[in-house]
């Protein structure tokens, strides 16, 4: 431990500190609003919302600290944004306790797959194109709502979107979602829609939420969430780490993420996993030496834990903002995820027909037999792939 502390101090630079902070700010802004929006749509209580926020940030921060220090790599822990959107689509169908039970099953599956070596086989038999197209289908309503809220308040919406676009173009090292949020707060203050006077903020302890189990929730949540973590979140971050020259500990990332998750779920967390976009912020050469960039992960972990601990004091201020702002910022936060997913789904010549079916089934929001659209998107597209694109499986898994 003393040796780790010495290495952290020796690599304490403005660059590693800033990278850790910027990655954390990314996690504080749009992704947090997605969770809040999901909790509101599911009718969760204030305490359940606080527990959810507390658990994903505190345990995500602990995962960053543990993995970055142990493996001397900037392995940044957080939670699955796509998974949060998946939950937003199912939390209105099942009781929250059933959703928690589905989380337990999902992370148990990830743990089993990680220790048995089945992760690589799953990634071969469940094409990334299909999973990515399903994600776009589930997320697309955010982009549509971003346009629809123009009717509600053209001034706030267009000002915020313009700020996002300009900062994307001109401010390469600052999160455009953060700039958009700041501009949105200024805009709603000008219009008088943001009233701080009635806000009551007090410290609330997270509460334990005990799971119940239902086949509908397990099929609708557990399987899609496990596939998202394995085929999207972990695969993306591992590719980023390898691209930066690290020997990414693939099995340890899946195994330890599932173990952290299996504790965090009892406070409402849907997942604790390595975060691709935040890992990308902490891995470039400008962050520092290859051996020292792990310090950015350490700082990120500290910031994440702090935000989680103070969430009960911060969330009331966020909830005081008009609903259209939560929708707008959450939508802007999803743009990068959707564009990356679209590119991954349709940029190759493989599984194009099945990926298209995954997209439209995910968009449909279809739900029957107590199974919602995400799993039907995967099952339906695999059915299409085995009929129309079987030769692509032959190439991929050498059947």
Automatic annotation (TrEMBL):
Transmembrane segments: 12-34, 49-69, 76-94, 100-119, 126-144, 150-167, 174-192, 212-232, 298-318, 324-342, 354-387
GO cellular component, one term: plasma membrane
Residues forming coiled coils: none
Keywords: Membrane, Transmembrane, Transmembrane helix
GO molecular function: benzoate transmembrane transporter activity
InterPro entries: Benzoate_Transporter (IPR004711)
Keyword Transmembrane helix carried by entry: yes
Pfam short name (any one): BenE
Protein name per the record: Benzoate/H(+) symporter BenE family transporter
Organism: Ornithinibacillus sp. 4-3
High-level lineage: Bacteria, Bacillati, Bacillota, Bacilli, Bacillales
